[in-house]
Amino acid sequence: SCLVDGDFLDTEKFMEGGKGQPRGTFSSIKELLEKFDERMTKLTAEAKPTPVNRVRAEVLRQSRERASDTSGLFSLTVPTGGGKTLSSLAFALTHAVRHQKRRIIYVIPYTSIIEQTAGIFRDIFGDNVVEHHSNLDPEKESAKSRLATENWDASIIVTTNVQFFESLFAARTSSCRKLHNIVNSVVVLDEAQLLNPEFLQPIMDTMNLLSQHYGVTFV
To answer: pLDDT of the chain along its 219 residues, tens only?
Structure first.
């Protein structure tokens, strides 16, 4: 993966000069955590003391608390409306900073959910969020985000099950470019029950391999 991506990048630099200049110009995970904490402080102050908001606050508290745990495999089971998206993001960012992870990858089964999730993240982090899926609105792309979809060299990636697992299993150079950037990251599998049972064994084998040998934390 490193060699293939390096070959693409060197060719790009030689053939197209400054095209790759925007690459890697995203905010760091630590800077994103600071932005997230600012937003959550504001939301908490504005939230009414309803039973649902108390549950959301507790889920968020526990997610932050467990972020200091050793890198590995985690599960987050929250009822609909319980604040799962922001709580999982709180865990991912805090865990990434404490364990020096390089990026956060959100893996989602449906493009409709992706657009909703990416919209929430973009509202907090601006153009630091990179969407990578087949249904992406071109107006949401920039030169920087378009380049980042090639090798996932960004702080926050929001993508589909198909894109993520084809990157791991497909025998194509374009897919292979992402592999070394999955290393030492936090991967959140949203709606994990929708993974195809037919492919569950190789998926779990690969998740265990990435977790044990390549520093990947899965939620």
So the answer is: 999 989 988 888 888 776 656 666 788 999 999 999 999 998 888 888 898 889 899 999 999 999 999 999 999 998 888 889 999 999 999 999 999 999 999 999 887 788 888 889 999 998 888 887 655 555 555 666 778 788 888 899 999 898 899 889 988 888 888 999 999 999 999 988 888 899 999 999 999 999 999 999 999
Which positions ≥6 away from 178 have C-beta within 8 Å?
A: 1, 151, 152, 167
- Hey, which residues does 188 pair with through a beta bridge? 106
Q: Is residue 187 within 8 Å of residue 101, measured between CB atoms? A: no
Compute the CA torsion angle 200, 205, 209, 215 (nearest 10 deg).
Answer: 30
In the chain the beta strands, taken as DSSP E runs, fall at 103-108, 129-132, 156-160, 185-189, 217-218
